[in-house]
């Protein structure tokens, strides 16, 4: 027994890559309903793994306090893989992070894009 059908096993986690687009909150809700959460990128391997994806929501937001980026598990961001010039809080309203093939970008949380869920492998 490994990861659920249509989830991918990598290292010690199971990952789900969406085929449709949702807002950051809706994406997170989708993950949580399945015992997972949006992906938390802890190391370079996980960053490289998820770079094959198009633009995807990751479990990172600064909606509590502008400029203080926190993972969905409550841990403050240490190592980030931001695209150069990001995060820029464009139009003073970009509090959710998305991963693009060339790095992370902050986007308005209300934008819809793809997402990646992560949960521990059984
Ligand atoms: O690359 C700079 C800038 O590009 C867009 O704004 C023009 C992005 N916004 C959206 O895609 C909604 C910004 O997040 C990005 O910083
Ligand atoms: Ca931005």
List keywords for this structure.
binds methyl 2-acetamido-2-deoxy-alpha-D-glucopyranoside; 8-stranded mixed sheet; 8 strands; 122 residues; Mannose-Binding Protein A, Chain A; alpha+beta; single chain; 13% helix; binds calcium ion; 2 helices
Number of DSSP helices? 2
Overall pLDDT score: 93
Structural class of the helix and strand makeup?
Answer: alpha+beta
How many separate domains?
A: 1
CATH superfamily: Mannose-Binding Protein A, subunit A
**CATH architectural label:** Roll
CATH-derived topology: Mannose-Binding Protein A, Chain A
Structure, described:
By secondary structure, the protein is an alpha+beta fold. Helices cover 13% and strands 29% of the residues. It has 2 helices and 8 strands, in the order E-E-H-E-H-E-E-E-E-E. The protein has helices spanning 24-32, 44-50; strands at 8-10, 13-17, 37-38, 56-61, 70-71, 96-100, 103-107, 114-120. Strands 1, 2, 3, 4, 5, 6, 7 and 8 form an 8-stranded mixed β-sheet that branches. It starts with 7 loop residues before the first strand and ends with a strand. Bound molecules: methyl 2-acetamido-2-deoxy-alpha-D-glucopyranoside (2F8) and calcium ion.
């Amino acid at each position: 027994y490994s990861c659920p059908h249509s989830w991918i096993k990598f290292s010690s986690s199971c990952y789900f890559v969406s085929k449709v687009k949702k807002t950051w909150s809706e994406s997170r809700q989708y993950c949580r309903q399945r015992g997972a959460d949006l992906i938390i990128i802890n190391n370079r391997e996980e960053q490289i793994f998820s770079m094959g994806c198009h633009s995807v929501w990751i479990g990172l937001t600064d909606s509590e306090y502008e400029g203080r980026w926190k993972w969905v598990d409550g841990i403050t961001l240490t190592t980030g893989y931001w695209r150069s010039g990001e995060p820029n809080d464009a139009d003073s309203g970009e509090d959710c992070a998305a991963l693009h093939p060339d790095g992370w970008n902050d986007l308005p949380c209300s934008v819809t894009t793809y997402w990646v869920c992560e949960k521990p492998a059984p």
